[in-house]
Every structure is written in C-alpha cells, then in structure tokens.
Fold each of these.
Amino acid sequence: MTNSFLYYYEVYFIRSSAPSLTYATHQSLNIGSIVAVPLKTTVNEAVIFRKVKKPEFETAEITSVLNTNYNREQMEIAKFISEYYFSSFGEAISLFIPFKNTSLTDLLPKKIEEKILPKLSDIQQKAYDQLLKKEKALLFGVTGSGKTEIFISLMAKMMEEGKTSIFLMPEISLTPQMEKRLKVYFGESVAMWHSKLTKKKKASILEGIESGEIRIVAGARSALFVPLSNLGLIIVDEEHDDSYKAMTRPRYHARDVAVLMGSKLGAKVVLASATPSMSSYYKYDVIKLDKPYIETEKKYTFISGDRINNTMLDTIDTHYKAGDQSLLFLPTRGNFKYLYCESCGKTHLCPFCSVGMALHRKHRHLKCHYCNYTEPIRDTCIHCGHTPLKSERMGTVEAIEVISEAVEGIQIEQFDKDSITTAKKLKEALQRFESGESQLLLGTQMLSKGHDYANITLSIIMGLDYILGLADYRARERAMSLLFQIAGRSGRAKAAQIIVQTGDPEFFQTYLADYELFIKDELAFLEMAEYPPFASLARILIAHKDESKASKITLDTVTKLKAFEEIEIVGHGKAPVEKIANKFRFHILLRAKHRVPLLKALHRVDCREIEIDFDPVDFA
DNA sequence: AGCACGCCGACT
DNA sequence: GTCGGCGTGCTC
C-alpha cells in the first residue's frame, strides 16, 4: 500500500470553521476518509475533501488514517448544507456521524408479526396506500386522526423490506412518550436519539445500528445524521414546528434537509402535521386524513381583553368542581412589546412590511423589525379609533396567583421554561396532572407540543392578539396554528369547551372548522405581500463589541449588496435585540423572488465578519 | 515609553 | 486547537 510517491489532499477539520488545508500522504485515500493531521503543535481530526496536485508550499504529512469515513451521500449533503446555509464544510460535515469502515451494508428483512401491528381504519389505510406510492408527501390530519399508526405501519413495512427509518420530532421532551409507543411494536429495533444522550449511550446505539439490530432511529433534529444504511423512510412529525430550524451554524432546517436527503438516498419522506406550514402545503403533494379518529364536540367562546376575567374564573371553577381538568395557555413573555387595541385586537402594522411594529419605550417610538422604519407612539387605534392602546400582558406566575385565589383548592401546574427545566421535572409535572393531583395545566408554548394529556374538558387560550401582532411575516400562521394545536389537546375523550381571548374573533371564527381554508387565504396574503414560499428571505447578522465597527460592517455589506439587481434590501440597522454577550448587534434583511440570485450575491460578500441566516424563522 | 492582555488570523 | 502578531489601554 505504501510507496514513495506522495498524494496530496485538501482536508477540512471536523467541528471547525477553519478553511481547508493541504496535506501529503503515501497512500491513496478515499474522499470522506477521516484522518489525523498535524496542525501547529497538535494533531487534529480532519476529513479528506478532494485530491489535489502538489502545491507550491511545503506540506505536512497525514499522521494516520482512522477507521471511520463519511460516505458519498453524507459528503454531498454536507456540501449542500455548507453552501445553502453559509457554514464552512467542516462545520456542515460535523453534523453527521461517520460510518465505521467495517460497517455491513446489507440488512436482512425483519418481519413484525401482523397481529401486534395497529389495525388501520379505512381512512388511515387509504392515506397509507397513497403514501406508499409517493416519494414525498405532506400528511395533513387533525390531532387524534391517527397519524402515528400510519407511521408505525410505514416503518414496519420498511423493516420487512430490509430498510431503515428515521422519525423526527421537534423536541427532546417529546421523545419519552413516543419511545414508549414505538417500543410496543419495534422493541429493540428502535432507538431514541438526541443531542443530550451520554457518550456511552450514543456509542451503544451506534453499535446497534452497525450490527443491524436497530432499524429505526427516532428523535430530535440530530437524529437525521446518524449512520443508517439502506435508509428507506424519513418521517418529520409536527413539520410546522420552528424548532426544526437550527439557531447556530450551520443554521439548517431539518425538515428541508430531510427532503433533500430523501431524494439523494431514494428514501421516502413523509412530513406530517395537523397545522402544516404554508410552505409545505404549497410545495408538496397533500394527503388528507380528514375525520378525527375519535370525534368529540368542541364548543368555542370568544372573550376580549388581556386579563383573566370572571367568565374564565367561573368556567375553571365549574370544570374543577365537576372533577375535570383544564389547560390555560399564555404566550411567552417575549423581549418585545407591541401596542395592540383592546377593542378590536388589532396591532399597528408596518406600512411596508405588513408585520407588527414593536414598541420601544426608551426611544418613544414604534419600530419595524424588518425594515427598521420608525414612527411616533400613537394613542388611538388606526383600525377602530379606540383609545388607549395596551402593551402589558400577564405572566404565568401572576396568572397562577389570580386563579389560586379565586378557585379554592385547585392545584395548578406551572408549565413553562422557568419551571420545567429538566426532563425529570417535565415527567413529574405530567405525572401529577395525569394522576389528577393537579387539575390545571398553565403554561406557555410548551403546552402546544404534542404531550398527551388525558381528560381535558376546558382549554383557555390567552394573548392571541399578542401573537398576531408579532414582528413576523408568519404571525397569523403562528396564532392560528397555536389555537388549533391547543384546542387539539382538549376533548380527546369527552366534549370540551374552548375559550379564546381575542379582540378579533371574526378572524379566528372564519377558520375554526377548516384549517385548510386558512392556509389558502394565508397563501394568497403571502403571495400578495411577497413572502415565502413566494419569495426567498435571508438575514445577515453583524455582532461586534465595538458599536461603530458593527455599524461600519453593516453599511459596507449593504453597499456591496446594492450592486445586485435581483435582490431587495428590505431594511438594515440595529437588530431588535441590540446587544448580546457584550456585542452590539446589527442586521440586514434581504429578499429576492428567487433563491439562486440571493445565494449567489451572498456568496460574493465577505462572510468572515457576518453571519448569514438563510430562510430565517427568527428575526430577533 | 513599556508592558499586559485579549483579539484575530494563520496554520498546510 | 494553538501560537504569535498587533492594537488597546493602563501604569510608571
């Protein structure tokens, strides 16, 4: 194998944003091989990127060749991620777990006994048959319509064909519940994967994958990158959830990468949600799972205002006295205040961007977080003339105080990021609620994520107007999907009452019975206002401890970008969150009708001092 | 002027 | 990851 002839390879360092370096070796190596190379005084792991001619400069020699490698598909997908999401190749490839050189590629079929598999209803069977025929599709079905049984049937089918499956969920906190469910059918063939697993646990799962015992990997975002051979299926459950978008480099969207991976590997991709994203509904074939599995009656009541009022307290009391359980949602107390009208529920929108304008008390003005347009704080609502406008909302702690005082004896579970800090606390809170020890689950966004709560007969959703007023082109989508998700948590077994607090009941009422109607109207709005999926957005973040330097980088970048005709600079200036970790933050928001010119322009600007977020979901 | 410290870029 | 160059800011 070894000879005196030298080969030269460009390598990227694993877990590093550094540019590629060139090393020499006596061996011919495969692209994707993992090697150890000297760098200054240390030896580091790197991946062979490509073969090159003998360079002009002196080269060091590769220290050793390790017994793991990235395969061709992993290298190609990492290349795509690094280019589309603006990270180095080293950072992109590090998302993946490499294959062992000894890995076997053939898997023997595993048969799941038919009698233990869930029996599909006619509606489920029809959706299943349709999904079998499609390379990729969006499964659109309300909460409780039995999507999980369809997933299980699909995964069982894959196993019978000697293929493996990946099942993505938006959050780690959802995995224990799904694990229980999957183990019933797949036992040791299924493993749960997320970034918080111990090194030891990860190693043992990887061993199981390598031996072919594990055929299904389920978990959060990172489960997408495990080294499964013969991948046949990727399921992205709750595909509308923004948790799929990574907030650090590479800032990839797991749902979109899943679709790419599916087409590269010839694996089926099933996106699923009761409240699908506008973009998925627009882009993919939709398979509807119409009728709820268990049909229960839901009665809606609309209440205006922004506090807990007597109607709510009385209703909570009634349900409590009847021995039933309730759920109350409050939006997370965000960093930004918005002026909204108590009377009509509407917020003041930016005239240029159609997103809510944020209130900056310090500067006494309203500011658009997209284009940085500002105007004085107004006193009256431009929609109905009502005065005064409000900006304060209730927090979870205050809400608990008010309810505890009014409803004697009720035990309330605080369900938010402040109180649910660990998996153990989550489990205990849910257990107390399930056992009936507590009767009201009161919390934030977390409530909307598919945890199973048994006998809820009352759901109260507060602060929807606040969500509607967010500086986000998807504010309406967020508000509507939240309402549907929370309403879906109640009435699983018995009829349920749902109280919706909004000053704009007509908006929500129009769509209550039909989320698809909302999608159609919202897509029309997005097309008119030129937002995704009818345009491409990118956000540039500039952070520097020296404010004038940050400002200069921003302006220089804007100047360079102005040369590109096909892209629009929506706005630039101080970022909504002006300072993080002692660094002053500036941002630039860009839009283009097509993504390719936007990508091209951004690849031309100096990216060392800026961070690019392509297809952003967060504008803070 | 001299020195300590921290940031940033290069390393192959 | 580690090293060294350089600029900033503090002290003598």
Amino acid sequence: MTQSQKLTVKPYRGTRDFYPEHMYLRNHMFNIMRSVAELYGYEEYDGPMLENFDLYAAKSGEELVKEQLYHFVDRGNRHVAIRPEMTPTVARMVAARIGELPRPIRWFSFPNLWRYEKPQRGRLREHWQFNIDILGSDSVSADQEIIEVAIKIMLKLGADKKDFCIHISDRRILMYFLESVLKLDPSLSAPVCRVIDKRAKISAEDFNRMLIDIGLSNGQIDEIDSYLNLTGKNLSDHPVSQSEGYAELNKLLEGLANNGMDSMCKVDMSIVRGLDYYTGTVFEMYDLSPENRRALFGGGRYDNLVGLFSKERVSGVGLGMGDVTVADFLQTHNLLPKLNPAASVHVALFDENSRLSTSHLANILRSAGIRTSMQIESARLGKQFKWANSKQIPVVVLQGPDEKAQGTVLIKEMASHNQRVVKEADLVSAIHQLLNLDV
RNA sequence: GUGGGUGUAGCUCAGUCGGUUAGAGCGCCUGACUGUGGAUCAGGAGGUCGAGGGUUCAAUUCCCUUCACUCACCCCA
C-alpha cells in the first residue's frame, strides 16, 4: 500500500470516537442518570438499533423519515431502519407485553440514535440519549415525577439551582387558545405553532411579520402576544383558564412546589416542541448561563403511541437527554469530572529475573481489591516511573534484589516523592493507608 | 439543502507580494542518568502545506473543482 492508499483514521462523518477520557465523561453522566432513575424505581431496558422501516414511516415526522433516516434493504429483502429515536421502540416493546406489564411502567434506557444530519454544534449523526418514560398513567403526578427526576439529575451532576430552568407549558392550553380564543382556522394552527416555538430566537418585528405573512390580523397578533406573556400568576384571569390543560398545569405546579422544585421551573407559553405526538404537558430545560443559552433537553406527555400496535390505549410521559448537550452544560459551568487514574498502583519490574515474583506481588494487591497495573516490558526504571507519572498513578511499588533478599518492598508515593520500605506482609495495609490519605 | 469562515508536524499555530532543503512552541522517542518520574541540556522521528486539476521556467502561495471541519440559516429534538 502506498501512502495515498492508507485508510483514514477519522471516524465516519458526524460520529465520535470515545477515547478513554471521553468514555469516562459519558459514564460519569450516565451513571448519575441511572442512579437517579433507579432511586425513583425505574428499570433499565434496551432494544435493537435496527427496526422495521414502517415503525417510523407510521408516526415520526415526514422530514425525519424522508431526509434523516438511515435505512436499507437487507439480504432477506426487508426494509430496515437504524433507530433515529427511542420512543417508537419503547411503544413497540410495551405493546408486545401489554397484557402482562403491571402499570405504571417506569423504564429508562441509554440508546445511541442515528440521523442523517449535516453535523454542527450540538447535532451529530450519532448521539446517545438518556430516555426515561412512565407509561400507563394519565395522572399529572407522572408528569411531575419525570420533571423531578430531571431536576434531581441536574443537581446531582453538580448544577446549582440558579444554573438552569425548566420551562413548562401544556399543549391542551395552546390548542384551546388557538381554537376557542383566537378562533383560528385549523389549517393555520401548525404554522402558527412553528412561529410561536421560534419566538425566543427572533426579534419582535420578525415575529409579527411572520404572523402577518401567515394571514393573521393585528388583533390576533396582540392576542398571541398577551397569551405568550402569561405566567403562572396572571393565567387565572385569561380565557384559557377555562381549559382542561389549565387545571392540569396548576396541579403540576402545585406538586412541584410541594417538593421544593418550583424555583427551578416556570410557566412558558411559548414552549411548543416539534414532535406531533405530544398532547399534554410539554417542557424544555434551559441553561441559564449567558454562554450557553439554549435548550438542554425536553419532553412531554404523548397519548396513545402504543395504540399503533395495540387496541389498548396507553399514554405516557417522558424525556430525552442528549449526551452532547449535557456535556456542554457541564463544561460551561466547570462541572467536568476529574479523570480518575486507571490504576492506583503501578508495580515496576526491576529486571527479567524478578518477573515472576513481581507478578506475584501485583496479584496480592489485586486480590486485596487494589487496582494495579504491572510493567510488561522490562525497561530502565526511570522510564517506568515516568510512565506511571504520565498516567497519574499515585503509587509505584518496586522490589529489586535488595528488597527481595530482605523480604521487603519499596513503596513510593509519586506526588510527595516520599518512599519507604515495608515488609512484604505489610504491603497491602501500607498501600491502603497511602491511598486513603490521598483521598 | 443555502450562505460565510478555515484546512501547513500528533496538538496549537507562524510563514510564503510565486523562487534553494517549509518553521516554532508543546507533545513523542533516545541519551546525559545501567535502582527512581514533573526540571535542565543534547540529539531524533514525524509534513506528497486537505485532495484533484489549471496557469507558470517554478505553486504550500495564484485560479478552478472537490472533500473535510466550523459558524449562521433550513429542519428537527
């Protein structure tokens, strides 16, 4: 092979390699999410990365299927898709056992998802997403629980209460507003929703012009303005307080306040969300740092996705949290975890003659539960210490001929440069002591 | 899909108004130091200057195309 024929080392466009330091961060985030989910009694599941193409053709947005879905025909002539989202898989799995699963169903997962995007900040072709759902309950308490889990995760990741805010709305209030207050032609509601969704990002002039372009009157635009300015306080005076969604939203806020979560939440009528299948509560979490003002993740209540597969109606509420956006949040707020050394102790190898006894020493440490790496290639001791230093391993153990003859071992603490000689029998306790001091 | 910016060593970047053999810092390897790492010193490896084509006596430099990265849109969570 000539130079020009060498394969590229770059990962496929829009995907990432997770080197150990990246994997460490991903595991850090996911371990915290997992522990909070389990604390609330949720169970972990997973599904295949490949699904029947029809699963997405049925319900996911047209854009998603036409432009962004990875799909192919397999050797058995089946039309197969790589999952772009997890919700259809959850719905399918729940439907398959609809008769036997005790409800509510509390599940979570960490799927990798694929979309044929043009890669850009915060959007890649493959990303991992923490998905958590509660299915089989219509109660707003389920909505509350999902939001609580999200908040607990943020706090456990190290976020301050002032670092983030969950913006909450309810699709039913929005629908009531559009139909009964604004008396909008149903064909206009989708484009109007899209403009409302965008309002935070665009100027008031652009906002008004877009609504005029759609065909709204100035009076209607004023109505929309005052609707979007509603908060929890003045909501009760507005005509939408007649809607079913209003009562539900109130209950949700009451529940959150009861558990001390209300300071991290606020009513925001401009929250719409793109997916068609949301029917009730919708929410998005925002980073409050000026450097990273954007939605971190979102979710909401979707009624009857399970109905695609089953006669039975099962509603659910859930959220998806992407690894990319959460990592951005941690970085913005200086919350990235310190990389843990791969081993606590490195056992140096004096020379080839001491290989067997050195290997035995290393195994004594491992039996005691101490993470221990051992020198493989014999090399100059300076090189071995240098290696341990570059891997930030805090302790190096060495048994040369002198120590061997006396039944002792040399222990060196790298940070302080201190070293001492202990009896072989005291090795484990001496290491334990050192490592505890370190922490 | 649309528009802007950027591609030079593993990384961060200089440089070339077109002209011998393309540089620095950091990192890596070797040695000074055959029982000890963060310092110092010396040396070394590593580049078809993103790729292809064009203009020219001569292209890393100018032109075209293409690919990749990146930002903003579009779209979407």
